[in-house]
Design a protein that fits this description.
Shape: elongated
CATH superfamily of the domain at 206-400: Valyl/Leucyl/Isoleucyl-tRNA synthetase, editing domain
CATH class of the domain at 206-400: Alpha Beta
Radius of gyration: 39 Å
Bound molecules: zinc ion
Mean pLDDT: 93
Number of helices: 33
CATH topology of the domain at 206-400: Isoleucyl-tRNA Synthetase, domain 2
């Protein structure tokens, strides 16, 4: 048998089957660096419209985890897709650098005392530590293919940004949103600091719950209120229920609901007050059966009757509170304004004392009660119970499980502790209403983000922006020692100080003497605020124009962060933006879910389901990591597991192999000299280009709507169905067998080139490494003509269905017929009538409609169906023959498949009839007619397939 391999157009490409990404990618990164790729791209886009994504800064501490990777990759994909769509879209990365975790780390290394005694040295160490962390995280992000200028990024600790935060504070003061007050705040005894909303999480906690009796100071008065004529000689008690026994010494009132009915009840040897609705459950807890109801009255009747705190003997009134409910307890609520937010609000209303009884480490301060001095509140249940027992004021205790706020860093229960702090007030100057009115000016993806934000703004308490720590932006305010007010010239001081901070950093404030600002004895009356700003104030105040001078007053187009940022960065940015300029911080907010394992469980070291981005990159490469990120519907939780990743690798291969096939088949092709114009192309090539055009439209729309996972779905459908099974499988024969310079082959190559040119742009936002590798095969000048500054392939926009040989509608019918033919062949193969599709002779019995479409292609149909011969018969005129044929699912089509009697061509493997088209014998008797033609360098004419 002769070997015709040499006569077949089998070309090899150096674009490998398996990407070997983990080795190729670092080389590309180096190349991009050396070519200053990001700057080249930016400068090529100078006159384009801008699209700005403002990067919410991650915290500069610890390794980059999979959640960081999802966030930064989504941003990078979004920005790249915007460039592809004709925008100038810069990417400036940021880092959040102040705050407790870094302070803790440095304290760990240097000792707590170092912080206390060497303030400036300590801050230097913090700065150094943060910078080191930023560099580490930067190199991780860089490896993921994030494209930016790595020398241009922002850090909240930079002097100019500290200065910006201080100026923002000035504007907040000017707009009358700032207050200073003593108020309970969430406090972590490990952090020894107030915590932001975003720093706490609710977990189940076991607490001791107590029923405690407060003795009435005037039984006569109580009886009068209950309209009871003959006072009992027994003492009267108000019974409260609490799950935080340690707050009882700070009790300043008892709350009742004005609308509830309260009962005066006599038990064995005392009289107590309880809400009617809770009497039964209370009696059950008390385990008493004999109760005598003496009288009843409305809650409103009880206001300002006086009782005695059983631990401190403090005289406390009954107050009216809307927060009293009938879910549990007694309907009388213990109120400690220094240790609860609702309690504080009632305290303000009734002018109660905001008493704080614990220090920053969570221990009782002295003089609360002799046996409580310096005792940790978390170890005080026993002592409190003991005191109450001694006073006969303790009823019953039991352990309950309930949701309780914990510090997300230390995992310890938080307490409400009242301290004097700076707050951005939500009600002063109508800030809450102003914010709510702006929510609709932002577009939210997914849509539920809007409701979520609205609900959080409605509920949000005043924002405590001061922290009693060292590592942060200073709050440069002089406070009056007696009346606690800020100096009348504060705004002009802040303006001066912010200028100095821009040059010398926040340290300037701690260095400067009060006398430099305050003259004429004022310096003796005021003191310098030592607190620093909450880190959420830092990041929230840094808007895009503060990091990029070219974009003054530009409202960024997009914020894109994880769903935890509704109470974090989205919230702080929104509050500050409205408080400062009564405007939104950005036009669109996109949220992504958290990464969970395949069972929906959070990543955790103890479960052992943690997968780090580094692991994925080291095993598969960054493009696989990016493909996983974009394949997920990020509006929900994002799943990851070994199995999911191996599925992603398969998807990658599908895309890669499609590209590889195209590349290897255009190796001897130059679009300028060999390209065929659309109208002269083979019909099937026209068809695939029309389909490519349709896909491009779809993919652009998906990118525009930030539906990246739909881009991937479309890409995969395109590669495996439209391309692989409905085009390449068919066209392969023509490309391999026909004369290398024939019109039919050049037509196919032209289509390949255009498809590749479109495909490489579609994938480039998601797979920058792979697309760049492809680009090197396509582009003549990589620097001048760079893929990443290019736009979607315009050629596709120029072609039109008006110029096609066969309409898309007719093609659809042809492919329906092909599908039915394949089914019959498959059946015949199972019945062993044919061994291979190419061995089949096919007769189609068709109605006139199908015939009209198929007859045009008749001679070339065998190449479409991949069979030896195709004959078209009219089903009406050949009824008896059609009897033998197989019915199909397509109306008006019957298919008959038989085995060819011909010979298998040694070159193309189609079966041929030995006498077909042959005038005389020649040396190629093992080849079919078209192969002979090709070998004799005579062009095989194709028009359709
Ligand atoms: Zn903590
Ligand atoms: Zn042949």
């Amino acid at each position: 048998m002769k070997n015709y391999k040499e006569t077949i157009n089998l070309l090899k490409t150096s674009f490998s089957m398996y990407g070997n990404l983990k080795e190729k990618e670092p080389k590309l990164l180096k190349e991009w660096d050396e070519n200053k790729l990001y700057d080249v791209i930016r400068s090529s886009q100078i006159r384009k419209k801008t699209f700005i994504l403002h990067d919410g800064p991650p915290y500069a501490n610890g390794d980059v985890h999979i959640g960081h990777a999802v966030n930064k990759i989504l941003k990078d994909v979004l920005i790249r897709s915007k460039r592809m769509n004709g925008f100038d879209s810069p990417f400036v990365l940021g880092w959040d650098c102040h705050g407790l975790p870094i302070e803790n780390q440095v304290e760990k290394n240097k000792g707590k005392l170092f912080n206390k005694h060497h303030f400036f040295e300590f801050r230097k160490e913090c700065r150094k530590y943060a910078l080191y962390q930023v560099e580490r995280q930067k190199s991780d992000f860089k490896r993921m293919g994030i494209l930016t200028n790595w020398n241009r990024f922002y850090m909240t600790m930079e002097p100019n940004l500290e200065s910006h935060s201080i100026r923002t504070l000035g504007k907040i003061i000017k707009n009358r949103h700032l207050t200073r007050k003593r108020k309970p705040v969430y406090w972590c005894i490990q952090c020894q600091s107030a915590l932001a909303e975003a720093e706490l999480e609710y977990l189940q906690k076991c607490s001791l719950s107590l029923y405690v009796a407060f003795k009435s100071l005037n039984s006569l008065d109580i009886c009068r209120r209950f309209q009871k004529s003959s006072p009992s000689c027994l003492p009267i008690y108000a019974i409260i229920w609490t799950t935080t026994p340690w707050t009882i010494p700070a009790n300043r009132a008892i709350g009742v609901n004005r609308d509830f009915t309260y009962l005066l009840v006599e038990s064995n040897n005392f009289v107590f007050i309880v809400a009617e609705g809770l009497l039964k459950s209370f009696a059950k807890v008390m385990n008493v059966s004999k109760l005598k109801i003496l009288s009843s009255c409305h809650g409103s009747m009880l206001e300002s009757s006086m009782f005695s705190n059983p631990i401190t003997d403090f005289k406390v009134p009954i107050v009216l509170s809307d927060h009293v409910h009938l879910n549990e307890g007694t309907g009388l609520v213990h109120i400690a304004p220094g240790h609860g937010l609702e309690d504080y609000d009632i305290g303000m209303k009734y002018k109660l004392e905001v008493s704080n009884i614990i220090d920053k480490r969570g221990r009782f301060v002295n003089h609360v009660h002799p046996i409580l001095d310096k005792l940790s509140i978390f170890k005080s249940d026993e002592q409190i119970t003991k005191i109450l027992e001694e006073k006969n004021c303790f009823f019953i205790s039991k352990n309950i499980f309930h949701k309780y706020p914990f510090c997300w860093r230390h995992n310890v229960p938080l307490i409400f502790r009242s301290t004097t702090q700076w707050f951005i007030s939500m009600h002063k100057n109508h800030l809450r209403e102003k914010i709510l009115s702006k929510i609709d000016s932002i577009s939210w993806y997914p849509k539920w983000g809007r409701e979520r934000m609205e609900e959080m703004v409605q509920k949000r308490p005043d924002w405590c922006i001061s922290r009693q720590r060292s590592w942060g932006t200073p709050i440069p305010i002089f406070i009056h020692k007696e009346n606690n007010k800020m100096h009348p010239d504060t705004l002009s001081f802040i303006s001066d100080i912010s200028k100095k901070v821009k040059c010398f950093g926040g340290e300037y404030w701690w260095n400067v003497s009060i006398d430099e600002f305050l003259k004429n004895g004022d310096s003796k009356k005021y003191f310098k605020e030592k607190d620093v700003l909450d880190v959420w104030f830092d990041s929230g105040s840094i808007n895009y124009s503060s990091i990029n001078d070219d974009f003054k007053d530009y409202i960024p187009d997009v914020y894109l962060e994880g769903s935890d940022q509704y109470r974090g960065w989205f919230m702080s940015s929104l509050i500050l933006s409205v408080a400062v300029s009564n405007d939104v911080p950005c036009k669109t907010i996109i949220t992504h879910g958290f990464v969970v394992d395949k069972n929906g469980k959070k990543m955790s070291k103890s479960i052992g389901n943690v997968i780090s981005p580094k692991e994925i990159i080291n095993e598969f490469g960054a493009d696989i990591l990016r493909l996983w990120v974009t394949s997920s519907d990020y509006s929900k939780e994002i799943n990851i597991s070994k199995e999911i990743l191996s599925g992603i690798v398969d998807h990658y291969r599908k895309i890669r192999n499609t590209i590889r096939f195209l590349l290897s088949n255009i190796k001897d092709f130059n679009i300028k000299t060999d390209g065929i114009c659309f109208t002269n192309m083979i019909a099937l090539d026209q068809r695939i280009l029309m389909i490519t055009k349709r896909f491009q439209k779809k993919i652009i729309r998906y990118y525009e709507n930030y539906n990246f996972h739909k881009v991937i779905n479309a890409l995969l459908t395109f590669c495996s169905i439209e391309m692989s099974s409905e085009y390449l499988n068919i066209v392969k024969d023509r490309q391999y067998m026909n004369l290398s310079n024939s019109l039919s082959r050049r037509s196919g190559q032209t289509a390949f080139f255009h498809i590749l040119s479109a495909l490489v742009r579609w994938i480039s936002p998601i797979l920058p490494f792979t697309s760049y590798e492809v680009w090197k095969f396509l582009a003549e000048d990589l620097i001048k003509n760079n893929l990443f500054s290019d736009q979607y392939y315009v050629y596709l926009q120029e072609i039109s269905e008006n110029n096609v040989v066969i309409s898309m509608e007719n093609w659809d019918l042809v492919f329906l017929v092909k599908k039915e033919v394949n089914k019959v062949i498959e059946r015949k193969r199972r019945e062993k009538i044919v061994n291979h599709s190419m061995e089949s002779n096919v007769v189609l019995y068709v109605d006139s409609k199908i015939a009209g479409v198929l007859q045009v292609l008749e001679k070339e149909l065998k190449f479409l169906f991949l069979v030896s011969s195709v004959k078209i018969m009219d089903v009406e005129n050949s009824k008896c023959c059609a009897m033998k044929a197989d019915l199909t699912d397509l109306h008006g089509l019957k298919v008959e498949v038989s085995r060819s009697n011909g010979k298998k061509c040694n070159r193309c493997w189609y079966y041929f009839n030995i006498f077909e088209g042959r005038e005389k014998k020649h040396k190629f008797d093992d080849l079919c007619h078209r192969c002979v033609l090709n070998l004799l360098k005579k062009e095989e004419i194709r028009k359709f397939v």
